[in-house]
Amino acid sequence: MSSNHTLMGVTFIGCGAAAPETIVLNDELAQVVDTSDEWISSRTGIRQRHIGHDRESLAGLATQAAQQALEMAGVAAEDVDLIILATSSAEDLFGSACRIQAQLGATKAVAFDLTAACSGFVFGVVTAAQFLRSGVYRNVLVIGADLLSRWVDWQDRNTCVLFGDGAGAVLMQGTINPDRLLGFEISSDGSQNCCLNLSFKPELRELIPGVVLTQGKYQYITMNGKEVYRFAINRVPDAIDKVIHQAHLTSADIDWLILHQANQRIMDAVALRLQIPPEKVVSNVAKYGNTSAASIPIALTEAVRAGKIQTGDTIATSGFGAGLSWGAAIFKWGN
Ligand code: COA
Fold first, then answer.
1. Is 118 marked active-site?
2. Within this chain, do residues 161 and 186 fall inside the same structural domain, yes or no?
3. Is 1's pLDDT higher than 60?
4. CA-to-CA distance for 77 and 56, rounded, in angstroms?
């Protein structure tokens, strides 16, 4: 840990992504539940998703993504100060971030999990920025990783067609140069909590006479799709508008819009409201489905690797989902 507490700027200098090898096409899902490629692709834009198998772990995928981010940034694992793992599907309720720290060999890093569902990556970036701007830390890995296939009811066609597995990561570094994080906004509305849940169902057990405790199991994902859809298309454009304003920009200054990859229709509606043309919207939902906290860094990584996103490009991003929660940020890519 650095003892230098000079106020710093934030840069985004590395990214990486990983997904399980196994791909399940919409037509294959139609053998599991009463659905069709036509229904899924026309309502969501999703054509396939990656599904983790029994030998793949959340920590393993997250580590792969993080290693790529470190390599691109030219930062050694031993120089990472903090690892934030945004996930809702940790393999250990005590947290999975420390396992990633060990697998990476990031020996001096402190590591913790952050749970904010599909907003988790944006919340993680904003959290990381506080440590970097204060000068407390210099190198922070923000990882978004989820294996929601483990928590989907594969008999429920309302939800099982939407989700997929994956991991993505960015390396954020403190700098004395101008701050590349131009604005952010993060929000929660617990009054709508019941719209999207992966809940614990308690079972009562009498330990000794008069002392009843609750043990139980987590239940599959439940969702009110229409409410979540309405929430997203209202809240997300407002949040992005606010950060554009904070950054003293207009929507014409945005080079790329990278939204949480939940549904192509949501992305189209948000872009339309913001008057951002389709060619500036980064989308890979067709290939991955909704990978929750992983979706934004996977989309970012693919666009950087494809040479679409270049150093200095201005990116508007927004994550949204369970909580309900949502967040937006504007940043410039690269040093
Ligand atoms: N295949 C075929 N039919 C399906 C289906 C599927 N996979 N899933 C639901 N249906 C049926 C329903 O049973 C319902 O039938 P009914 O009218 O006979 O009751 C009908 O399709 C609902 O269709 P529609 O009203 O057109 O659905 P929709 O336009 O609201 O689309 C979602 C459904 C889930 C795609 C949409 O609401 C959505 O994307 N919501 C946001 C979800 C989300 O992104 N969640 C994660 C956020 S992080």
1. yes
2. no
3. no
4. 22
Supply angle C-alpha 194, 271, 320, rounded to 5.
Answer: 25
Residues 65, 163, single domain; the answer is yes
Does residue 226 form part of some domain? Answer: yes
Let me know: does 167 contact 145? Beta carbons within 8 Å: yes
Q: State in Å: Cα 226 to ligand 1 middle.
A: 7
CATH number at residue 283: 3.40.47.10
Domain shared by 124 and 166, yes or no: yes
The answer, yes or no, to whether residue 3 has pLDDT greater than 60, is: no
- Co-location of 162 and 186 in the same domain: no
Which position among 118, 139, 195, 263 bears the catalytic label?
A: 118
pTM: 0.96
Question: Of the listed 139, 195, 260, 263, which one is catalytic?
Answer: 260
Q: How many domains does the chain have?
A: 2
For residue 5, pLDDT over 70 is answered with: no
**Whether residue 260 lies in the annotated active site:** yes
Domain residues for the domain of 84 are: 9-177
**pLDDT 10s digits, 98-107:** 999 999 999 9
Instruction: Give the separation between CA 28 and CA 262, rounded to whole angstroms.
Output: 20
87-145 per-position pLDDT tens digit: 999 999 999 999 999 999 999 999 999 999 999 999 999 999 999 999 999 999 999 99
Rounded to the nearest angstrom, the distance between the alpha carbon of 158 and the centre of ligand 1 is 6
Both ends of the chain: CA-CA distance in Å? 22
Average of per-residue pLDDT across 158-181 = 97
